Amino acid sequence: MRIDDALVWAEYTLVNSDSARLDAQVLLAFVLGKETIYLMTWPERDLSEQQKAQFEALIEKRVNGHPVAHLTGEREFWSLPLKVNNSTLIPRPDTEVLVEQALSEIQSHFTGQTSILDLGTGTGAVILALATELPMAKCVGVDYSHDAVQLATENRDSLGVNNVSILQSNWFEGVTGKFDVIVSNPPYIDPTDKHLKQGDVRFEPLSALVANEHGLADIRHISEQAKQYLVEGGCLLFEHGSDQGLAVREILQDNAFVDIRTIKDYSQNDRVTLGYFK
């Protein structure tokens, strides 16, 4: 089977996927150990029998709904290649808005060595992105899941990021000290949301996805506790659901945060809400 024939077959097989062409390209490049541009440059190259069998097996898994990132074991976030597995959420492009906004707030409001805490770090995507942009910052990522802590630690070490500590903690329980900035992409999906039975989230841990109180319980808990861990003038930023902007602003207001505002994602949906402790 030639490369171009393999891609045509895979795209036809993945006809029910919204990203069939991209899925096929990423998976075939993974099998070949090449960049996707290689597929366009050498379409006439033949696959070995082993490569053909491996590619067909991956496409079959993708047809059954397995996320591409789980099949390849990697997802790029903020131009960082991150290892992923089914113990954490797969980093999403919209989460880069959280990184962008945190960087903007830090550049506008803080001087000197900034201290940053990431609650529910998962793969480490957010804190590693911030740490690479701010190499002088003191960064800490925490997660309740031992497997997530191990994965984030592996990502930190493989990227050679030396200004990040990764800790196991149930939110603030194992955290000491105060921080200039606290960021979090906590569970924020209502347990009854129909989307939990669709797409990639079927293969991700529910504990990283759902929260009580219509998805707001963890956001509320973090907001109530965060002031004990923020310096005066510190900033708290959340990623949240597209329909939760107003509710998160009200939670921050109820907890005496000021300068509260919501930032939209690349699709112009409410995605990140922040406030300051003063």
UniProtKB/TrEMBL annotation:
Gene3D superfamilies: DNA helicase RuvA subunit, C-terminal domain, Vaccinia Virus protein VP39
Pfam families: Methyltransf_31, PrmC_N
Residues holding S-adenosyl-L-methionine: 120-124, 143, 171, 185
Residues holding substrate: 185-188
Domain Release factor glutamine methyltransferase N-terminal: 5-73
Keywords tagged on the record: Methyltransferase, S-adenosyl-L-methionine, Transferase
GO BP annotations listed: methylation
Methyltransferase domain residues: 113-246
Reactions the enzyme catalyzes: L-glutaminyl-[peptide chain release factor] + S-adenosyl-L-methionine = N(5)-methyl-L-glutaminyl-[peptide chain release factor] + S-adenosyl-L-homocysteine + H(+)
UniProt keyword S-adenosyl-L-methionine, yes or no: yes
InterPro entries (alphabetical): DNA_methylase_N6_adenine_CS (IPR002052), HemK-like (IPR004556), Methyltranfer_dom (IPR025714), N5-glutamine_MTase (IPR050320), PrmC_N (IPR040758), RF_methyltr_PrmC (IPR019874), SAM-dependent_MTases_sf (IPR029063)
Gene Ontology molecular function: any one: peptide chain release factor N(5)-glutamine methyltransferase activity
EC number: 2.1.1.297
Family membership noted in the UniProt record: Belongs to the protein N5-glutamine methyltransferase family. PrmC subfamily.
Role description: Methylates the class 1 translation termination release factors RF1/PrfA and RF2/PrfB on the glutamine residue of the universally conserved GGQ motif.
Name this polypeptide is given: Release factor glutamine methyltransferase
Gene: prmC
